Amino acid sequence: QLHDGATGGHLGVHKTLEKVRERFYWTNLKEDVKTWCKNCVTCAGANGPIRKKKAPMRQYNVGAPFERIAIDVAGPFPVTDNGNKFILVVMDYFSKWVEAYALPNQEAITIADVIVKELVSRFGVPHELHSDQG
């Protein structure tokens, strides 16, 4: 009644605890009020979902070309005459060099084949490959 009743107002743990202490006392009063407020469905809906903290942005130091590359797949796009509808984009972190390859699908075997035949054969194996796994 003092938290979620007609005059309660869903005011949170501290204000509800003050209102309860004005009128009542029992052992474990504080813990009971905390539990009641934390389990309140109305308050949980109003506060929204709990957001995960994101990792801080940081600068990567890369010492040589194609030491660290980033890859991403874009699409689907309209099918080309060759049957391709995706694009594999590869960027070198050191030089910012970008290459793009047309793909018929985004299966792992297709992407791995392009990386080995087009990149590794020309630039060597990168130490790091950054991907959003998409």
UniProtKB/TrEMBL annotation:
GO terms for molecular function: nucleic acid binding. GO terms for biological process: DNA integration. The lineage of its organism: Eukaryota, Metazoa, Ecdysozoa, Arthropoda, Hexapoda. Gene3D superfamilies: 1.10.340.70, Ribonuclease H-like superfamily/Ribonuclease H. This is Integrase catalytic domain-containing protein. It comes from Graphocephala atropunctata. SUPFAM superfamilies: Ribonuclease H-like. PANTHER family: ENDONUCLEASE-RELATED. Residues 61-134 form the Integrase catalytic domain.
